[in-house]
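Collaborator request log, item 7. Partner lab (contact: R.S.) asked for a structural prediction of SCP-like extracellular to inform their binding assays.
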Amino acid sequence: MTAGRRSALVTVAALLTVLLGGCVAVEVPVSGPAPGPDAPTSTPPPAEASAAEQEMARDVLDRVNDERAERGLAPVEWDEELAAVARSWSAEMARTEQLRHQDMGALLAREELSDLQGIGENVFQSTGPVPAGTMHAGWMRSDDHRVNVVNPGWDRLGVGVHCAEDGSVWATQQFGRTTGSDLPAIATTTPPPEPLVHPEDDGPGCG
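Returned to partner:
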């Protein structure tokens, strides 16, 4: 890295605060959905996504599948129901100005997600505008979040991005495991940080 490039990165870091909430994942036990963390038990109605927010979400999906392919994992398919949940949660976090997870057990109990036996979530917040690549790279560089991104137990993904009026960016990745799917068990061990296919802070943004 050149000295000029390093200086530019330090300047950006001083202007932006990027926060990642710890990932969570639950699977349906024999007795029913597992209890979630201390979080709201319902998600607000689905939020409408702008064209820019939709483009960012799809870009994150493509990056996730590139990472999975590099590690010999099957791709995750876009799931619009999970995307609706993710969009709503990102908007709710922005409204309350709180980076947190929702009640995962309650999510699994929802009728529109009844074909899922497991669900996982990553959340993200930046105080200023950032491109899709920054969200993805942040999740991949975090041990807790990488567990979900390259987890062999997921086969579906919905991404919701919310570009707030104050310039902050909020995002949610909602992973799912289809009931009866022939997949490896949902992994709980931390995958290695390398290879990292998309380390770049690039891609579509809110503007």
